[in-house]
Amino acid sequence: MSRPEPSRKLLAAFKPWFFPLGCAALYGLASVYDPEKMILSLRAGGRIFLQLGLPLCVALTMMILLNRFLSPSLASRLMGHQAGAKGVLLSTLAGIVSMGPIYAWYPLFTTLKKKGASSFCIANFLCCRSVKPVLIPVLIGYFGWELTGLFLFMTLTGALLTATCVGLLCPFDGDGS
C-alpha cells in the first residue's frame, strides 16, 4: 500500500472549501465591477440564510436535547398511544407555536416516532401548524371575531379528524417507519 502524495493530501484537505472560496472570489469580482448589485445579493443571501438557518438550528437543537433528555418511556407517556388528552393537547399546542419551514421539523418527528410518539400526535402537530397565533389579530381585524373563531374551530377540528385517520391508517410499529 503506497502513501498518498503530499499534494493529494493538501488537495483533499481543501476540497470542502472549493465552493465557498469560489463564491467568495465571484463576490470579490462582482464588488469590483458592480458593488451595488453585490451588496444587494449579499443582503438577499443573508435573508435566505436567516429564513432557513434559524429554523434548522432550532430543530437541530431540539433534536439534540430530545436525544439527551427524552427517554422512550417519557415520549410514550407524553405523545404515545396511552397519552390520551394530554398527548392531544401537547401536540396541538406544539403545532400551533412551532415556526419555520416544515421540512426542518421532519428529523425531529422521526426521532419522536422512534422514541414512541404515535402517528396520531405527529399528524396532529403537522395539521395544527396552520394556526399561527401572531396572525389571529390580523384575521380578527379583517374578518371579525365570528369568522375567525369559526375558522380556528374548523381548522383544529379538521386537524383532529386528519390525525385520527392517519392514526388508524398508519398504526404505530415501534421502529420509526
TrEMBL record:
<feature type="transmembrane region" description="Helical">
    <location>
        <begin position="12"/>
        <end position="33"/>
    </location>
</feature>
<feature type="transmembrane region" description="Helical">
    <location>
        <begin position="48"/>
        <end position="66"/>
    </location>
</feature>
<keyword id="KW-0472">Membrane</keyword>
<protein>
    <recommendedName>
        <fullName>Permease</fullName>
    </recommendedName>
</protein>
<keyword id="KW-0812">Transmembrane</keyword>
<keyword id="KW-1133">Transmembrane helix</keyword>
<feature type="transmembrane region" description="Helical">
    <location>
        <begin position="150"/>
        <end position="172"/>
    </location>
</feature>
<feature type="transmembrane region" description="Helical">
    <location>
        <begin position="87"/>
        <end position="106"/>
    </location>
</feature>
